[in-house]
Amino acid sequence: MARRDPPYASLLTGTLCLLIFVELVWVQLRFASVLPGNQRDAVNSVARDVGVSHAPLHQDPPSLLNPAIIVFCYDRPGYLNQTLTSLAALPELADFTLYISQDGNHTGVQGVIETHRAALAALTAGFESWQRPRVPQLGPRQPGHAWLAQHYKWGLDRLFLKGGHSHAVIVEDDMLFSPDFLTLFMETGWLLDADPTLWCISSWNDNGFSKDHHWDPTRLFRTSYFPGLGWMLSSRLWEELGPAWPQQHWDHWMRMEGVARGRDCVVPEVNRNRNIGEVGANMDRAAFRKSLQTMDWAREAPAAGFGDEDYARLARRTGVWAFPRGHYRFLTSVPWRGGRLLLADARRCDLLPGALRTLPTPGMRGVAAEPGVSCSAACRARGAVCSKADLHFLNTCAALMRAFPCPQGCSLEWGQDLPNMVAEGARNHSSPGTCYVTQQMPQCRGQAPETRRLCACVPPGTVADEAAAAVRRPRFLRPRVRAGETGGAEALAGA
User: Which SUPFAM superfamilies match (predicted)?
Assistant: First the structure.
């Protein structure tokens, strides 16, 4: 079966002129493919109203309110050491509380945890390690999968019911992680709250074998078969599953029709973790070598993220600057192989019809963070969440000067902690009191010791509103194509 064209495959056809409504960026992820039917219908309705045949949907992901990661382990210190080392290298770790849940008191595993304790405590929003009393519920000869199911129940009860977390990423002690492993969950976790037909996000494609397959590292899809192996669930789902959690074969139980109830998981085509456990509760060396060892996985983060905005990638394909320049009122015109590509900044281009403009999230407020505090943390401390999409509206000198004194004026800078003001008493910065904006995409998680971020905080309950707003404002409009027309579209798609 032929592969579906990516969302940019029909941007240019012959001499057709296409206007792409982007937020300073090109979007890779086809969110329409993972949205519920009623939202896809709304997208199609909007598309018909403006005379186009298809409207893939992009949603700027709201931040998760209080996410956690839990590492389940037992008696494999060598594997656990590799897993924790890989986990510590992930940049988004600072937005998560990390728990290591040990089944029993194996001294080698305890030693590995202590070796990593100080580093993990510094890298995360919080760190704890636990030891579960290893008491069999099905008798002393219960199989390995029963121990694991009972451990899951104990650990997830403690994480959700005592820890009060909104979401949990579940991993085990035999995994290595792709650089964007946590990015996947950060940028898709909101779907679990916005879409009742979804119940998990997983980093694992069960069919993600490397041989003779050409998977797209930026593509996500729905699966009705629960995948496990590095996955996220919400606290609301655990309220449902926890009381009925089985004492054995927990993953098989998750695949039962009466448990899944028609709900799907979102997974990437290319796995975001690699399983290194040759021997485990449900694995032996022969099965590992035949299946898990042959799985493909993303060793590098792709240029475009999961729903992230990436103008730079489109710029490389078309040979223009990696950030918008030479625009007219934030409308950029680029001739491309017999056609013309028009990119409009949906936040700032006043040439767009009102219905296609992107507005701030209702209830968004600018918050001046203290020095060294990320926007994720600053919003969380106020009972809100950071909205990366809304940071663009604060990325102006006017907005900064309303929030800060900016005694040394306002200038342009690069970095992950922008927009910001350098603290007036900063000793290790050359420009104390200067406010800075950026031409990069602002991020919620960036921070620096001597800068104060201006943060876009939205109420936690606006996740559903964000999804509805995205339906009203499609990011890509695809033109009707007349028979026989060809041109630069295929070249752009395959560049």
Answer: Nucleotide-diphospho-sugar transferases
